[in-house]
Structures are given as structure tokens and as C-alpha cells.
Amino acid sequence: MGYTGRILVARTGKPFEGANLLHEIDLGNGWRWAQLDGDARGALAALVEESGRPALSAYVMDSDVADVEALSPSGSGWHTYLHPDTAAEFGAPELEESADEVLMQALAWAAEAGLIPDPEAIRALLTAHNTFAEETLRELVAALGINPG
């Protein structure tokens, strides 16, 4: 049985708090990865509003698929599924944007966050399939330019 819950990635400058926090990683430069027990609806918008910086959220289902959303203070953002074939098998609604559109939106989001993304790695990860969706998400976060260190 895999992990089901919300993962938040944000440049908060301080540790996440809350009773449903399972695990947290300091990714460096103020960026943090918080793995929550269950969902935390509205957490992404609240993080962006509180920090004034772009943030990313993923709802992971049984480690098989991740529903990823990113948002920035300007209101721009993007949405995709990691492991899209599995998302379709789970009955997830079709995405409104193509992979190319998501890539362009993700690059704009990364630029607003002051990051240096790897466009080719992001493009590949939008259709990649690892054993665990969390692994694919970690790779996507790194490709966006958020690297531990």
C-alpha cells in the first residue's frame, strides 16, 4: 500500500507546522517539502498568500499518481498529472492544457520563483512513469530548479 496525501513545496523560510505533517525536507534556499497525512484543501493558495511566493502542491493517490498544481502570487499557475496514464485509469478528468502548454506555464512559474529550470527534463517528466509518484514529483521539483543543497 502506497502513500496517499498532500505534498507541499514552498519557499517559506520556516518549517511547516500542523498535526497532519508526516515528513519535511529542507530543500535549501528557503524551499521546503512537506508530506502531509491526508489532504489539506486550500493549502496551496494559503501558502502563496502567506509567503508572497510561488508554491507547488501535489495530491498523491496510493503512490500511483500525483495531481500537481502550482500557483504564484501573480495568479498564474499550472496543473498536470504525474503518471498521466495511471490518472486516466483512475478516472481523472482530462487536463485542459496540452503537455506543451503545461511546460510553458511551468517555465513561467519557475521564472517567477527565481529558479533556473531544465525544460527538457520537465518535458520528459510530464509523461514519465516511475514506481512511485513521489519519486517523479521529486524529479520534477529538481527539474524546476529546486535542488537540495
TrEMBL record:
Protein name: Uncharacterized protein
